[in-house]
Amino acid sequence: MIRLFPSVPTRALAPSAALVALALALTLSACGGSSSDAAASSSGGSGGTAAKGQKVSVEAKDESCTASASELPSGRHTFSVKNSGGDVTEFYVYAPGDRIVGEVENIGPAISRTLTVDLAPGSYELACKPGMVGKGVRAPLVVSGASASAEPLDAQLTEAVSSYRTYVETQAAALLATTTPFVAAVKAGDAAKARALYSPARLRYESIEPIAESFGDLDPLIDMREDDVTAGTPFVGFHKLEQDLFKTKDIGASGPTADALLANVEKLVALIPSVEITPLTMANGAKSLLDEVAKSKVTGEEERYSRVDLVDFAGNVEGAKTVYTQLRPALEARDASLVKTLDTRFAALQDLLGTHASTKGGKGYVAGSGYVSYDALTPAEVKALAVEVDAISEPLGSIPAAITAA
Amino acid sequence: MTPGHLSRRSLLGLLGGGAAAVGVGGVGGAAVARATETGDDDSGTVAFHGEHQAGITTPAQDRLHFAAFDVTTTSRDELVAMLKEWTAAAEAMCAGRDVGEGGTAGGPAQAPPSDTGEAFGLPAAKLTITVGFGPSLFTDAHGKDRFGIAAQRPAALADLPAFPGDALDPERSGGDLCVQACADDPQVAVHAIRNLARIARGKANVRWSQLGFGRTSTTSTSQSTPRNLMGFKDGTNNLKLEDAGALAKSVWVAPGDGPDWMAGGSYLVARRIRMLIEPWDSTPLAEQERVIGRTKGTGAPIGREKEFDALDLEATGPDGSPLVDEKAHVRLAHPSTNGGAELLRRGYSFTDGTDGLGRLDAGLFFLAYQRDPRAQFVRIQTSLAGRHGDALNEYIQHNGSGLFACPPGVRPGGWWGEGLFATT
After folding, report:
1. Into how many domains does chain A fold?
2. Which residues in chain B have their CB less than 8 angstroms from residue A406's CB?
3. Domain of A192: which CATH number?
4. Quick check: A404 and B112 CB within 8 A?
């Protein structure tokens, strides 16, 4: 996952079945691979060439990310990542467009972890992310050699759907893991803690909202706003608690709402394995995420009490970007210029969003949020965000046609 | 795939003619046949290609959608590609066709339509689309050459000075590019800007825009003089397209005036002039006529009988005071007061609802084309502006402003800005 949000406590999650399977596969392949570090550790810097199947050692420091190889033959490789820095770090192997080929997270200082990935010929980037934020420190990696013949296009799409499913399940699990302590804090009457835990849970929800929307009533029950209330429907969900926490500042009677929210999130997580995902629903979902941004985030309408609209914004963008990166290999084969445009536009949007990141004590800081309060934005800054959102929405709308074209 | 270039008008012929045929039998059928034979109908198109851009001296249509854009891309190639795409889209729209291959409803089901569609079935409505380049396209606020064209910035494209009494809103002023879309149907004008803005996404975005209705000047002797929102005839003495000599003298940039790429072009000054409608409406007729310098009913100059009677600025009344007030708008705007300087005006009335205090946010969206703004608009506005200038200033306020170099017309196969970008 591209973590846009540093302060979320990382996954003490119940791993999904898919993750368990993935973890098992990693463990097995790591055991089966060469355990020798000799070849890898001979070079202090990057630039070496590792032989097939040998371990690549990576030294992650706070300011550098040094791999023992910058060129590899195609095939399966295991990266042994040692954190020599002071911050908790994570390690990624990225294919072009920041498509995640593999990742290991939560590598504490002085800890080593391994990552095994199958690498096809092409250009990659290795990234260490001290503090687990931002784009990280990058190093190039070139993989060459005999290629398995290019995957058939439908196989690429199948792979995209399966990776996206893994992402959705991971996010859903994270949603549960962030909503649970939030709800607990509300019920315990700890308003300050609940306020700080509110936006982390929102980020997870926003990244998979189109999936939630496919379950009819669940999305409104979790995410309705006061304007959505009609005769006979009570105001419930995240935004009711937001109102209690940030506007009326009275959570004395919020317990039942909090319980209902958690129950609905649990229901959502349980239903996700049954959701049908196709390349088309993925692509349309990505577009709808950006449409959400255009409609209610960039206007500051969604989080009217907490003002953490930029967190939702980031969540929507992350969700859309993930769809795109999963579909990217298939798109590359069909519409290379669309890929070029989207690479540029996503980078521009995320860079712009990044300029509004905030840290504790900084201007516009909202407890628990990685971004400034919506109120801290000038009209010109809001317009700049709106312009970027419009600019990406058009090429994003071209994905469905590109992937359904023969 | 559906057939590509099914034009909006041929579809109109099929749909509209078909509907008519149901109603009146053979007559509808004949109408379809006629439309097909001539490739046109009576909706009217204005030629897109030519020596000059359409929309300057071509007879003023009734509706306007004007937009100024900020260019956000830093890539010259992207900007050029966008201008080419704009030209192709404009050419299609001015001919009454949809934008793009699939148009409104003929493209792939999973792709956004290449035309936004709200003009589908409507006639071309004499649509003209006119493009201009603002000073800020050439050099940024720090004087930096943005696209390698700074050396091609004409001296005549000098930033307008600040005039006394201006209350310019930055959000309604400036712009790297402008597009003036005029048509006899507001939906067609809006459609034109909307499609160009959509093509521009990621490369340029709308900085501000203005809708206009009711042309407030006459650019042809074939047109009658309209009234502006003050209720006065406007544009009586405007330059007319029939007077080629005057156009050559005052509107079209001549070879040698500046960089070659502007020859055949013209400079546009756009001003959003809000009228203080409520005070004006409670002003006595005699005062209104004194302020303007013309009678409200016929439009004749004060002291004369008919609209087109010559303005006599020397005439005095029985008491020896000038018939046309010393501060009357017509006097201070007149060429004789300004060293012969004249403008081709092409403005529109606008009403943007009310201002929150219950007052009409309305006025004149002033558009004037000229050969050199320094010698023309700036000269005239200097006469008019300020407390000691035009008596009208008590009832108006300039709150938006833009200046643009409108290149010459596009030849078939060419594109807007070709001359500018080809020379650098």
Report:
1. 2
2. none
3. 1.20.1420.20
4. no
CB contacts < 8 A, A to B, total: 31
pLDDT tens figures, A67-110: 999 999 888 788 889 999 888 888 888 888 777 777 777 788 88
In a domain, A364, yes or no: yes
**A27 part of a folded domain:** no
Residue B12 lies in a domain: no
Q: What's the rounded Cα separation, in Å, for the pair B367 and B181?
A: 12
CA pair distance A400, A328, nearest whole angstrom: 12
Q: Which residues in B lie closer than 8 A to residue A398 (C-beta atoms)?
A: 111-112
The residues of B whose Cβ lies within 8 A of any Cβ of A are: 72, 108, 110-112, 198, 201-203, 205
Same domain, A220 and A331: yes
Same domain, A239 and A360: yes
Question: Residue A39 falls within a domain, yes or no?
Answer: no
Q: What does DSSP assign to residue B261?
A: G
Residue B235, C-beta contacts closer than 8 angstroms, at least 6 positions apart: B215, B216, B217, B218, B219, B225, B226, B345
Q: Which of B404, B410, B412, B421 is nearest to B176 (CA)?
A: B404
The CA distance from B404 to the nearest CA of chain A, in Å, is: 23
Give the contacts of B306 (CB within 8 A, at least 6 positions apart).
Answer: B298, B300
Say if residues A381 and A374 touch (Cβ distance below 8 Å).
no
B393 DSSP 8-state letter: G
Please give the Cα distance from B128 to A322 (Å, whole number).
43
Regarding whether A177 and A131 lie in a shared domain, the answer is: no
Give me the residues of chain A with pLDDT under 70, please.
Answer: 1-54, 147-153, 406
Dump pLDDT digits (tens) for B98-110: 999 999 999 888 8
Distance separating alpha carbons of residues B13 and B20, to the nearest angstrom: 10
Is the domain of A104 the same as that of A231? no
Question: Rounded to a whole number, what is the distance in Å from the CA of B385 to chain A's nearest CA?
Answer: 30
Domain-ending residue, one of A113, A144, A175: A144
Q: Are residues A161 and A134 in the same domain?
A: no
Which of B72, B111, B202 lies closest to A401 in CB terms? B111
Q: Is the pTM of this model over 0.80?
A: no
H/E stretch holding B287 reads helix B285-292
Helix/strand/coil percent split, chain B, to 5: 30, 20, 50
Residue type, B113: P
Number of domains in chain B: 1
3-state secondary structure of A208: coil
Residue B98 covered by a domain: yes
Do A208 and A258 fall within a single domain? yes
Residue A120's domain is classified under what CATH number?
2.60.40.420
Within 8 A of B203 by CB-CB distance, chain A residues are 391
DSSP string, B48-89: S-SSS-TTSSSPP-SEEEEEEEEE----HHHHHHHHHHHHHH
Provide, as residue numbers in chain A, all residues whose Cβ is less than 8 Å from the Cβ of B110: 280, 400-401, 404
Residue A18 domain-assigned?
A: no
Chain A residues contacting B via beta carbons under 8 Å: 280, 341, 345, 387, 390-395, 397-398, 400-401, 404-405
Distance CA A331, CA A341 (A): 12
Evaluate whether B209 touches B198 at the Cβ level (below 8 Å).
no
First-last CA distance in chain B: 41
Q: Are residues A112 and A174 in the same domain?
A: no
Provide the domain limits for residue A127. Answer: 54-144
Q: What is the pLDDT of residue A406?
A: 56
Asked if A398 and B111 come within 8 Å (Cβ–Cβ), the reply is yes
- Confirm whether B415 is domain-assigned: yes
Whether residues A312 and A174 share a domain: the answer is yes
Could you give the CA distance from residue B388 to residue A58 in angstroms, rounded to a whole number? 77
Q: What is the pLDDT of residue B304?
A: 92
Residues of chain A in contact with residue B72, where contact means CB-CB under 8 angstroms, are 387, 391
